[in-house]
Design brief:
The protein has 89 residues and is mainly α. Helices cover 43% and strands 0% of the residues. Helix 3 packs across helix 4.
C-alpha cells in the first residue's frame, strides 16, 4: 500500500477495486435514502467563490458551441476550467 497522501490515478484505481462490505454499521443506501441526507454543518457549504472579471480570447467555434447550449455559457466555461485545473492537481 502506498503511504503518499496524494490521490494519484493509480491510487484511485486501487481504491475503486476494493470490495464494499455492507453490514449493520455500514448499510447500503438507496438513491431515495441519499437524497434525504443533509450536511451536519450546512454553513460550510454556503461559501461563495470570489469572482474576478477578466478578458480572454476563446476560439469562436468553441464559444458558439457553448452559447448554443443555452443560457449560462460563462458558468459552463468556468466549470470546464475548474474541472481541468482540479484534474491536474
Amino acid at each position: 500500500m502506498p503511504t503518499s497522501n496524494k490521490l494519484t490515478d493509480e491510487r484511485l484505481k486501487e481504491i475503486a477495486a476494493l470490495p464494499v462490505t455492507y453490514d449493520d454499521d455500514i448499510p447500503e443506501f438507496s438513491d431515495s435514502d441519499l437524497k434525504g441526507f443533509a450536511p451536519a454543518h450546512p454553513e460550510y457549504f454556503k461559501v461563495t467563490p470570489i469572482k474576478k472579471a477578466i478578458s480572454i480570447k476563446i476560439d469562436l467555434d468553441v464559444l458558439e458551441a457553448l452559447k448554443a447550449q443555452g443560457k449560462g455559457y460563462q458558468t459552463r466555461i468556468n466549470s470546464i476550467l475548474r474541472e481541468a485545473v482540479l484534474s491536474h492537481q
